[in-house]
Specification:
By secondary structure, the chain is α+β, with helices and mostly antiparallel strands. It contains two helices and eight strands, in the order βαβββββαββ. A four-stranded mixed β-sheet has the order 1-4-3-2, with helices on one face. A two-stranded antiparallel sheet has the order 5-6. It has a two-stranded antiparallel sheet with strand order 7-8. A hairpin with a 3-residue loop joins strand 3 and strand 4. The longest helix is centred in the first third of the chain and has 12 residues.
């Protein structure tokens, strides 16, 4: 019988700064199939979405949204948050059809296909 490893902590949610929680929630619903963790209340200043029943994403309203990328020591731009997409070409088309700006798909050896959205 295999033992289940128990960790002393968990990461229950991530909070992302956004300009418009409602518009951002619609994006996460339409693109990733997330649902509200609980009903949205504008007075909260945030919308909380659930991903696969185990991770909540707080979309917190902010006047200024910081950059979610940085440059590593090799001079390569890196994302703070990345999503792995099973069929990136279909996903890319879905983004384009919804008018969501993305860079062209590129291929990085050892890293696969990717695209960035703003």
């Amino acid at each position: 019988m295999q033992k289940t490893k128990v960790t002393p902590f968990q990461i229950p949610y991530l909070q992302l700064p956004v300009k418009d929680p409602v518009r951002s929630a619609e994006f996460y619903q339409n693109i990733f199939g997330m649902e509200f963790s609980f009903p949205y209340n504008p007075e909260d200043g945030a919308a909380y979405m659930m991903y696969r029943d185990n991770l909540a994403v707080g979309l917190v309203e902010c006047e200024e949204v910081p950059s979610f990328d940085f440059v590593n020591v090799k001079g390569e731009r890196q994302a703070v948050l990345a999503f792995e997409i099973r069929d990136i070409h279909t996903f890319y088309g879905k983004l384009q059809n919804q008018g969501i700006f993305t860079e062209e798909i590129t291929f990085k050896p050892g890293g696969g296909y990717n695209c960035k959205s703003s």
